[in-house]
Specification:
Helix content: over 70%
Shape: globular
Strand content: under 5%
Mean pLDDT: 90
CATH topology: MetI-like fold
CATH class: Mainly Alpha
CATH architecture: Orthogonal Bundle
Low-confidence stretches: none
Number of helices: 11
Distance between the termini: 37 Å
């Protein structure tokens, strides 16, 4: 049954490698997307845009998720605020991604124009993805904190450590592998989301640069949206480019997961 369950996974990977590797070259990572009847081209700007948007989402969701998990793990079982927050996180974990995009569109694209900087941008896309990442990070981090043996905390208290010292020096380092696993899962989900980015970051055929500086307040390309756009085009070059972009996206997520596992193993040995 395990082998049967692995068949769909390896079928997808085989199809991506077979179709996507045909277009892989140095130009794919350094050039801009091709136009309708143009041959060649690449999606280097989409790779940079994906990293920027997911990075913004992680900067927002990871600190709040871990801090929220610390509060939930230390709160009393009868704490109404903790129970409400945990229930809200569980509901939000099944939140349709397109609704997160609509919310970010109203708040960051339209609403933020009141402050003079609204519009489609990498920041708006990062906010939309952070809404999807936050509950996953919070719940997995809370579970990882609960898995820390009670005797380790009691030993720390017995040596005179405060609650804050115990959390920073004992609980968090011990729970780090589980927390990193939740973060990597959240990043993997965010990197493949398309609907929220259609409402917030939109797309761009240009680099994420303006006057030699990175400009996060402009429409931003991403691999997920590029795959969505190119796969529906009637041009063979764009279709093949979408397969290559899908392969790169899978490899990018795999690479980030391998980094997370390496850090987790190192922290366990330490």
């Amino acid at each position: 049954m395990t082998l049967v369950a692995l068949v769909p996974l390896f079928s997808v990977i085989f199809m991506l490698v077979w179709r996507g590797s045909k277009q892989l070259s140095l130009g794919v990572f350094t050039e801009l997307p091709p136009t309708a009847f143009e041959e060649g081209g690449g999606f280097g700007n989409a790779i940079v845009g994906t990293l920027a948007i997911v990075g913004i989402a992680a900067l927002i969701s990871v600190p709040f998720g871990i801090l929220g998990a610390i509060y939930l793990s230390e709160a009393d079982s009868e704490n109404r605020l903790a129970r409400s927050a945990r229930f809200a996180a569980k509901v939000l974990s099944g939140f349709p991604s397109i609704l997160a995009g609509v919310f970010a569109y109203g708040a960051m694209v339209i609403g933020a124009r009141v402050w003079g900087w609204g519009g489609f941008s990498a920041i708006a896309g990062g906010v939309a993805l952070s809404i999807l990442m936050l509950p996953m990070i919070l719940l997995t981090a809370e579970n990882a904190l609960h898995m820390v043996p009670r005797r380790m905390k009691e030993a720390s208290y017995g040596m005179g450590a405060t609650s804050t010292q115990t959390m920073l020096n004992v609980t968090l380092p011990t729970a780090l592998p589980g927390i990193l696993t939740g973060i990597m899962l959240a990043v993997a989900r965010a990197a493949g989301e398309t609907a929220p980015l259609l409402f917030t970051a939109l797309f761009s055929n240009y680099w994420l640069m303006s006057n030699g500086k990175i400009d996060l307040l402009q429409p931003t390309a991403s691999l997920a949206v590029l795959i969505y756009n190119f796969s529906s085009m009637p041009f063979e070059n764009q279709i093949e480019m979408s397969w290559a972009a899908a392969l790169v996206l899978v490899l990018l997520v795999l690479f980030m997961n391998l980094i997370g596992q390496a850090v987790s193993r190192r922290s366990i040995r330490a």
